[in-house]
Amino acid sequence: MHRFDRRQMLISTGAAFTAAVLTPGHRASAASAEIVEAKVISHNPTLYHGWPTVTRRKKRATFGRLFRCARGSRLSVRPRGNDAIRRRRQNMGLALCFDGLTWSWIARIPVRKGDDIKKYHELHAVETSKGTIVAQLRNHNKKSYRETIQTESTDGGKTWSVPHSIGVFGYPSHLLRLRDDRLLMTFGHRRKPYGNQARVSEDHGRTWSEPMILSGDAIGADMGYPSTVELDDGTLLSVWYELMRGSKRAVLRQARWNLKG
User: Fold this and answer.
1) pTM value surpassing 0.85
2) What is the pLDDT along the chain (261 residues), one digit of tens a residue?
């Protein structure tokens, strides 16, 4: 099995966001996923396909890193500088870009008491309809081990809440604001049932629904990193990587699905 270090590949993952203090919560109202179609979309079995990101252009879905614009700027939640490559980072927080070329460091995300910042990884964030910035982190600290934890900003990313548990096992998460202003998180579930799951928030990230299974037939933990877009017809398209039975290299899979409830 081929092993790759995602953390060394990522300098930034991001989206954008801004305002409203949240308190940790757990379960929002019930929702379910109706799978319309699931299929393999990579076509070269000699290559290892890993960690895709799907995003929207004006008329189509495409692959690439996602930056969501807010007030004319681009925001990215990210580890700071080249230290991230050497895995010796001391800061993790918000970077700001106005021209798409240069970035300025804005703020540091605080570290939860007892945690090691080097065990926070692979952040992603979104701006709610009320302007709150909700960012989620992959956590490998003893507390909330292998969970997605969450932090929020109420002032455009200048300050952040201490990361806290939202009761979600799985990682890393991808956040999407839907047209109806609900938030959607999709994430890999690296224990049985191995696959990818989704949860929805109707209160700007304060609470999250019970999990919806997008895929639950993976043979093991070498899979995940889903990302999701909302298509013109309201259906959702999620793409992830997965090592499938009988294959030596991972493939890309996608599911087109409807969010019910």
Assistant:
1) no
2) 444 444 333 333 333 333 333 444 556 557 899 999 999 999 888 889 988 888 876 655 554 333 333 333 455 555 543 333 333 345 677 776 666 677 777 888 999 999 999 999 999 999 999 999 999 999 999 999 999 999 999 998 889 999 999 999 999 999 999 999 999 999 999 999 999 999 999 999 999 999 999 999 999 999 999 999 999 999 999 999 999 998 889 999 999 999 998
Instruction: Round to whole Å and give the CA distance between 139 and 115.
Output: 9
DSSP state of 111: P
Sketch the domain layout of the chain as residue ranges: 6-24+63-226
Q: How far apart are CA 195 and CA 122, in angstroms?
A: 18
Identify the CATH assignment for 6-24+63-226 out of 3.20.20.10, 2.40.30.200, 3.40.50.10090, 2.120.10.10.
Answer: 2.120.10.10
Residues 6+ apart with CB under 8 A from 129: 177, 181, 204
Residues 41, 30 contacting (CB under 8 angstroms): no
